[in-house]
Amino acid sequence: MFHLKNSSFGATANNERLEYLGDAVLGAVVADILYEHFSNKHEGFLTVLRSRLVKRETLNRLASDIGLSEMVEHYGVSSTAHNSYMCGNAFEALVGAIYLDRGYSYCVRFIRNRVFADYLDIDEVASLENNFKSRLIEWCQKRHLDYSYDVVCEKCEDGSNTTVFVSELYIEGFRCGYGEGYTKKESQQNASKSALEKLNVDKDLYSAIIKKNSEKVVPET
Fold first, then answer.
1. Non-local CB neighbours of 148 within 8 Å, separated by 6+ positions
2. Given a cut of 90, is residue 174 above it in pLDDT?
3. Fewer CB within 10 Å, N or C, the chain?
4. Which residues of 171-190 are buried (b: 16+ CB within 10 A; e: fewer)?
5. Which is the catalytic residue, given 92, 168, 172, 186?
6. What mean pLDDT is predicted for residues 172-188?
7. C-alpha–C-alpha distance, residues 53 and 121, integer Å
8. Tally of CA atoms within 13 A in the half-sphere of 209 that contains its CB
9. How far is residue 32 from each of residues 22, 95, 141, measured CA to CA in Å?
10. Residues 151, 163: contact at Cβ < 8 Å?
11. Residues 174-192: what's their mean pLDDT?
């Protein structure tokens, strides 16, 4: 399989059309599987879980687990460069190729019986709460705390054109979290995770935040 940094190398040598098709097919297949597997769950639950299962990080890992990453031929980009999402794209291209060759029903069986059954436990994924930003916001709102995310810089990884975003999280003016990511959203998630872990062990920081919040002047009504 090929993944080219620039599509100008020629339509016959890259997988962009297969990736496009595979992305759409994979979304439908996963929705089908979840609808059947979680027959009593509401639409919101299914939507969030599907997003977790088809997000780029998950597809990158699955591609590596099934050995697909070792078969990807690439040009002009490091196989570890997250900005390319090369392995996840290759996984989508594989699904697109299977769909063209064997049809939709076979794709469902492949994902359910060969991928999820062996490499990804959807019940375990469903039980994980990994939306750290939502948890952090909920934590702050319950305590009536002010918070803000600042994207402090963008930088490039050494030896590549991959952009890395750096975010800091402030609660009541205290710097509580730091995170890096290949998107602003990912960096904010990592900053939220960092803050939750820090607040869980740093009792002095927690006390200082609560104290500052209690000293706010409440407007007269």
1. 169, 170
2. yes
3. C
4. bbebebbbbebbeeebbbbb
5. 92
6. 90
7. 10
8. 23
9. 15, 15, 36
10. no
11. 90
Long-range contacts of 42-46 (CB under 8 A, 24+ apart): 45/126
pTM given for the model = 0.56
For residue 168, indicate whether it is catalytic: no
Q: Say which amino acid occupies 95.
A: V
Q: What percent of the chain has pLDDT over 70?
A: 81
Asked if residue 83 has pLDDT above 50, the reply is: no
Write down the catalytic residue from 16, 19, 23, 65: 23
Domains of the chain by start residue, with CATH: 2-127 (1.10.1520.10), 132-214 (3.30.160.20)
Burial degree of 63 (CB within 10 A; 0-12, 13-18, 19+):
buried
Whether residue 32 lies in the annotated active site: no
CB distance 91 to 13 below 8 Å? no
Which pLDDT score, from 0 to 100, does residue 8 have?
45
Question: 7 falls in which pLDDT band (50, 70, 90)?
Answer: very low
CA separation for the pair 173, 67 (Å, rounded): 46
Q: Which residues contact 211 (CB under 8 A, 6 or more apart)?
A: none
- 60-64, 89-93, 157-161: the lowest-pLDDT one: 157-161
